[in-house]
Amino acid sequence: MDFIPELRRVAHQQKRNITKPEDTVDFAQWGEITVGDLAGQMAGIARDYGLNDLAATTPLYALESQGFSALTAAEIPACVSSGTCNRSELFLGLPRSHPTFPTSHSPAYSNAAFQILAYALEKITNSNFASLLSDAIIKPLNLSKSSILPPDAQYGVIPGTEASSYWSFPLGEEAPAGGFYSSANDLSTVSRSILSNTLLSPAVTRRWLKPISHTSSLDFAVGQPWEIFSFQEGRTIDLFTKMGNIIAYGAAMALSPDHNAGFSVLVAGPNPALASDTLTRLSDLLSTNLIRALEGAAKDEAQKFTGTYVNTAPNTNSSIALAIDSGPGISVTSWINDGVNVLQTVQVFYQIPTLADVSVRLYYTALDHQVESGSTFISFRAVMRSLADTNTPTAFQGPIGNSCHSWQLVDGVIYGNVGLDEFLFEVNEDGQVISIQPRALRVTLTKQ
Question: What is the pTM of this model?
Fold first, then answer.
């Protein structure tokens, strides 16, 4: 909490006064929490302070009639009248809120974390959040329909009234947690800028589009601040989303970095539960069909790499044949170098029972290089493995043996400092594949 003086003081007080074991149950350990914890929903702090507190939204006498105990004045959030807290109110009450988990233990959604994160960004950049948002994102991307203040009502879809729909509900300093107004076109612009690295370098973007922690579902992980859903379409595909709901409104932005594509969904309706459910259903419908279609298009595009490649030099017997089938990647169906069946060599090095069990499949690495001639060299790596059934007894089957370990095999067999699994295609400026290099073998094979 180096960037938040109020929390630095709390952490210092905790360090001096920790004498009771229940301290970790009643108080978040602010000295442990990092900016990364806040951004990745791993801080273990309360979801909100003030916002949506029943003491702020429901008359206390009604709550008492429903079985709630009476509250003292000190137990009621300082910002109960407005529903959201300014900085001084937040740091007066949030340090007394109970933690949800130990720091970095388990993901737990927190709006308060993003209000604090905004304060940290203001300290780091020496700018207020509204100006930072405008200068860093809205202006550079020319987002004409995006803001943290409500635009004129004529530009919005307002089911019911402005009050009942929360169209212009003032989130105040909690706006960084989800108080943004935008259009489908602006969300698409933001998505495209992420995929094309308009504002960030490719390396920073790739680092950002990564999971931080699993949730209780193995196909649902948490990023900073992504909600990441995994699909099985012959291979694992990760969909990076940011979703949110507030009363009548729901929004989702989804990106598939593997396909350089995505979608945005905005919904509005007078029934909050129905609006939320519609957002989920539309997102599921779009993602399932989009991913399946993109995978099909990728296979069609990969057809240009298939075929037979040969060494055209005289007195040589070197060739490789590639094909697309129902499996992932590109299948190597035959591979000869100087008259030697390289698939038999793979069998030996990878200790595969029979030649028929040898599987060599090529996968794009996202590495490519364009040269002065106009050609682009595109890198692939091969996964070399056995198709043989190991006949492992049921009693010995488990998550370790049943998991995919191909990531541990990349560059596993090298010859002269070059991996046997490294392949390089040359594609000319017209988009035609003209050659392949099995790089460890130091040979170029021309497409026939």
Answer: 0.92
